[in-house]
Model the fold of this input.
Amino acid sequence: MLVSLNEYARAHGKSGDTLRRMAEKGQLHSAQKIGRNWVVDCDEDYPVQKRNVQKKYSVVSLFSGCGGMDLGFTGGFEFLGKRFGKTVFDIVWANEISSAACKTYRSNLGDHIIEGDINKVIGQLPTAADVVIGGFPCQDISVNGKMLGIKGKRSSLYTAIVDAVERLHPKVFVAENVGGLLMKKNEESLNKILEDFGALGYRIHYQLYNATDYGVPQTRERIFIVGTRADVPAFKPPAPTTSVPITVKEAIKDLESRAQDERFSHIWSLANVSGQQGNRRMIADRPGYTIRAECHGNIQFHYSLPRRISMREAARIQSFPDTFMFPSKLRETERQIGNAVPPVLAWHVAKSIEATLGGANEARRI
Ligand SMILES: C[S@@+](CC[C@H](N)C(=O)[O-])C[C@H]1O[C@@H](n2cnc3c(N)ncnc32)[C@H](O)[C@@H]1O
Done:
């Protein structure tokens, strides 16, 4: 039975104006205009307003460290006055062997991290996940290490990521490592890694990224291996966001006159110069050198002050927001910061994966 739009509105506790707008937009299928008045079939269900709920993709994170890559993947932070918005990713399960790194992770990202050796806890993985990420240990591949490649005990741990991908069959996986993996010496290791992932039926894209190209004030080079499942479009890597690198001075100048402050991790090592690395002084109008995990006596000197850079300065050079807290002492904080994937670089990779998964479009459709 046809009733006036006002009657229909009253029956559903809405205003006549709201219903008129809906009728004009065609959101009421039976509505029709008779003369100057709208009428509608009183049996038509009131349309449920579709909420713009953002689809979340579940992520399992291995070798999570203090959470640099995970922060980048989830977004929702600021760095040097720029906002890196929330992504469509939600970390549901993470793992890390170091108890101190887990503590930092929990302080900043949540309780979903499990402490332990991945080989012992892999059975506790959830039954499904959309994405698997992990920066596997790199000491055996790094030019600063013994270069044993994946035959080394630590870097062979990439097989845990292979195992997780095999168990969870995610839409996408990301394995991150040092740029040295692309060196001739590591060719065999790289080929074996690509072969193992490829055998799971994933389309593989790998590329070297220089963090400076993405707004990180550091010449850190890292390789990201991204695998997409056969039913997922191919991954398109993020294009560099800048050709003008952020300099260290721009990144840390405001900390120059700040006194040591343990709660803010603005503390520095007093270790003497150790070899060539320890002699390195940053250059004010250039991006910083790679922040290393095994640094202590090797961490670079401030560009103008008679001291090594502080942990907060190292965190800035790694693009951690100032709100990211490191509850450990100096040595351990050095390790966690140096091990991390720069959150800003990880954010750009995550946004490209979001686009691959149709994240933004899907969210609009819901
Ligand atoms: C390169 S770091 C990862 C950093 C992290 N992606 C980030 O962005 O902060 C590798 C991490 O793997 C952890 N690790 C090494 N062996 C492990 C094992 N057997 N099980 C779990 N984690 C392990 C190390 O403690 C280290 O934190």
Notes: The domain at 248-339 is CATH 3.90.120.10 (DNA Methylase; Chain A, domain 2).
